[in-house]
Write a structure and sequence with these properties.
By secondary structure, the protein is mostly beta strands. Helix content is 15%, strand content 59%. It is built from one helix and four strands, in the order αββββ.
């Protein structure tokens, strides 16, 4: 009974935002929209090889190692469409 009362109260008191992120073409850009406003934002994600390079992991039964590259991600957001 207490859990039900808490659930009912939270549904009425906490705003719910439906956010959508749609990819734009073959880029790493996404248009962000919500059902609460007409505003549109453009989020861009840029990937570059990390200065640390990466790391090696042991391979299978043949003992070979596999190299796993590391990447740095840079994310920017601007108001307006992409």
């Amino acid at each position: 009974m207490i859990e039900e009362a808490v659930a009912d109260a939270s549904e009425e008191q906490i705003p719910v935002y439906r956010v959508t992120a749609e990819p734009v073409g073959d880029t790493d850009d996404y248009e962000i929209t919500t059902d609460q406003t007409d505003a549109v934002y453009c989020m861009s994600i840029k990937k570059s090889a990390s200065d640390s390079g990466g790391f090696s992991v042991p391979g299978g039964s043949d003992g070979a190692e596999s190299f796993v590259p590391e990447y740095d991600l840079k994310v920017s957001v601007a108001k307006g469409g992409c």
